[in-house]
């Protein structure tokens, strides 16, 4: 369905990690690997010939763990994954690992820290290793709607050629409790050389579509150039085809996001979506939606101005009256009104970035 909410590209991979019971926290990521990530047009399909057996995956995972009691060993046949229950003293957690190879360029939502605009309660650090890979360590609530509830730790190592090791630690740890495996130890599991032999045997994925790629930087730069006078631009982020910035008119922050998409003219889903929209003199259709925030937050609302021209070029502008999703509203009104959002969405600058 073409309707992509402001947060989807950032929450899809994290949802697959954390919006499941702790006992299956990595199973969702396995689904992501097998099904691919449609939001980024990457493909990660199941291999017919796995380079290692499930039993060997369990053995390799155990070899990377610190001293402790290990039980409930599991591995999923047909995937490069394994999990164990790890106990040390009175602490226990489930440790899961999955190996994968993404198409290049690697989608940033699978390799970088979660965007704080959509995951405001986490703690994440990101660095480059001596071997040229990107390592992130993310400590976040399992559910962003319950920031003081159960936590999940994720260490993810991603190489420029798409090879990736992802390790998750889940359990019943609350925010101020401790897992039996420290963040440093979790990172050591992800960066262990024991995974190299398997990673090197995973076939390269076909490169992602090499067509025109509109970067987040281009989009946020364009947003800032179109802001009315008196609006201050702050934190920014995004991905290919999508960008967002925090704006402030001196009376509170709002999050402004813009999707820029090229669809085939006459797409049936879009035609249905814009069926009751207003058509301008130049043929551009425009629809406006005001609704409660799709990701909670007391008093938080979204104002959406969505445009589509006759050639399938779509610009969708969304404003949230808070600096991040899941947070309470920072103001009762919007920093930019409907007319101002409309002017941004209809500006010709989007066709030239």
Please give the structural blueprint.
Blueprint: H1 8-18, H2 27-35, H3 54-64, E1 69-74, E2 81-88, E3 91-101, E4 123-128, E5 134-141, E6 151-158, E7 163-170, H4 183-191, H5 196-199, H6 216-226, E8 232-239, E9 242-248, E10 253-262, H7 268-273, E11 278-279, E12 285-292, E13 301-308, E14 313-320, H8 338-346
Antiparallel strand pairs: 1-2, 2-3, 3-7, 4-5, 5-6, 6-7, 8-9, 9-10, 10-14, 11-12, 12-13, 13-14
Helix pairs in contact: 1-2
Report what the structure shows.
There is one protein chain. The chain is α+β, with helices and mostly antiparallel strands and 353 residues long. It has two domains: 192 residues, no CATH class; 137 residues, Jelly Rolls, CATH 2.60.120. It is 20% helix and 30% strand. Helix 1 packs across helix 2. The longest helix is centred in the first third of the chain and has 11 residues.
